[in-house]
Amino acid sequence: xxxxxxxxxxxxxxxxxxxxxxxxxxxxxxxxxxxxxxxxxxxxxxxxxxxxxxxxxxxxxxxxxxxxxxxxxxxxxxxxxxxxxxxxxxxxxxxxxxxxxxxxxxxxxxxxxxxxxxxxxxxxxxxxxxxxxxxxxxxxxxxxxxxxxxxxxxxxxxxxxxxxxxxxxxxxxxxxxxxxxxxxxxxxxxxxxxxxxxxxxxxxxxxxxxxxxxxxxxxxxxxxxxxxxxxxxxxxxxxxxxxxxxxxxxxxxxxxxxxxxxxxxxxxxxxxxxxxxxxxxxxxxxxxxxxxxxxxxxxxxxxxxxxxxxxxxxxxxxxxxxxxxxxxxxxxxxxxxxxxxxxxxxxxxxxxxxxxxxxxxxxxxxxxxxxxxxxxxxxxxxxxxxxxxxxxxxxxxxxxxxxxxxxxxxxxxxxxxxxxxxxxxxxxxxxxxxxxxxxxxxxxxxxxxxxxxxxxxxxxxxxxxxxxxxxxxxxxxxx
Length: 479
Description:
Blueprint: E1 4-8, H1 16-21, E2 26-28, H2 29-32, H3 37-43, E3 49-53, H4 57-71, E4 76-85, E5 95-103, E6 108-110, E7 123-130, H5 134-138, E8 146-148, H6 151-157, E9 164-173, H7 179-185, H8 187-197, E10 209-215, H9 219-230, E11 238-243, H10 250-257, E12 262-266, H11 273-283, E13 288-291, E14 296-298, H12 302-312, E15 318-327, E16 330-332, E17 360-363, H13 365-370, H14 381-390, E18 396-407, H15 413-416, H16 421-434, H17 438-461, H18 465-478
Parallel strand pairs: 1-3, 1-4, 2-3, 4-9, 5-7, 7-8, 10-11, 10-13, 11-12, 15-18
Antiparallel strand pairs: 4-8, 5-6, 5-9, 13-17, 14-18, 15-16, 15-17
Helix pairs in contact: 4-6, 9-10, 14-16, 16-17, 17-18
């Protein structure tokens, strides 16, 4: 239905005319209760984002959240609006996101400070109190705090709902007797500031995508792979083939195609798939990137469907599609554990990678922000990369199949190593050491320890003493 919903108390806080000019769905609760939601979505060209004007305060917030839970069940709810503060340390117009929110009675909730859309310059603040009594607002304690009238009441109703809640507030006043006048005077500034939140709506109309194809001694498979990319109903701007030191006729095959869309990069020796992909990322000339492993084949509408998905969900910076699995020439159904989630997928991806390189479409800037493929890992490099990204970025999912993945042939990395968790624990340990949030540290640690216990037991059974020593060092460091 609608995957991302923004709640805002007052129409006056929104750049309303600016949003309407973009055909963006903005409705009051009373309006949306009277319309067919499917028709409403179609009216806005299938956009899966909604702004809901709730009205001010606890009662209106609760009515709005109950409606959203019952009728829409979005992946994300982001409460936008204004906040006062009792600290001159913060400026009028500052964006803030609190780490804790509470009500006047001291009930508190930890808030997810990530955003499910492109981030911007904001302050991660300690605490926000949602109030119903303005006397409390004016007579608050001396500690630096922020105040609003909605966020806690909305978040409280979303406990254990599976819907992630986030808050972005613009500072308008300093929690004093001048608050009402300052709030009204600063509404024009708030409207301009909130345009930055919605900047992802200026989604580039012309799709410019680089497809990166790493390959090593797979000339015959590469031929089918490239044919599927060149046969796309939406063609990429460029295809970069990285020949990772092949000794077969890969170079001759690509040269024979003589296609100006294809650029061949030849590595002097076999450096591994991570190094090959990284060379492709560095060489790419577009904002959006897609990978295709040379043993995979794309369905003809892969890129077209993915771009259409991003037009409807322009807040995503990374997304993937479903795929078809073929093992030893027979189509098979993936196990339940391989089912691809959408949204905040970090926790569900800790056990094994739930993003496939050949299925993904992502912004090139994510490599600048979160690093490239880890060239020190001989396998599970995709697991490593996408955990780093999904820790802070929501991941979209188009349920249309886009890729045919061929499994069971000689040369696959998954068949080369008997215990893939030997590489996953290296990633998990690095994440554990770097993680600052205690909840996420605990989450990573639980998966890491479980994998290490299995690896230690298996290595002892096979008398791999060096591996036992290596795993035990990590185990005791994590414990």
